[in-house]
Amino acid sequence: MSSQSSKNVKQVDGKYPLQLINPLFIRGLSLALGEGAEKYGTRNYLVGGMPITEYVGALRRHLEAFATGEDIDPDSGLPHLIKLAAGCQVVMEVLERHPEDDDRQQAYRCITGITKPDHGLGGSGDSPQDFARRLGKAT
Fold this sequence. Notes:
50% of the residues lie in helices and 0% in strands. The chain is an all-alpha fold.
């Protein structure tokens, strides 16, 4: 049981617990997205045409830099983890709006010669669009 008294617990069923997100994370995320907008154009990724694996490559570079001890991206001055979060947002939006840009299956087959099992963002084989629809049901 939680340390809070059960008398004054507000019911929040079906609502996003946004209070759990650190405000500094939100600020960092907005700085990273702003840097991308300045560099490439505001929400340029929504135009489509960029294979998902290109975004995955950028995500992997930031993760690798962080994993090997580099906290700050030397190009932007922002934390690699914030750059990862921004990249994840971009990928989720691209998957939702431009499923035709999802080349993960094709790229994986080219490298390994085998297909990978189907896995969705929301579990149980959901497509990114199904996952986005389920997220939209919460208030």
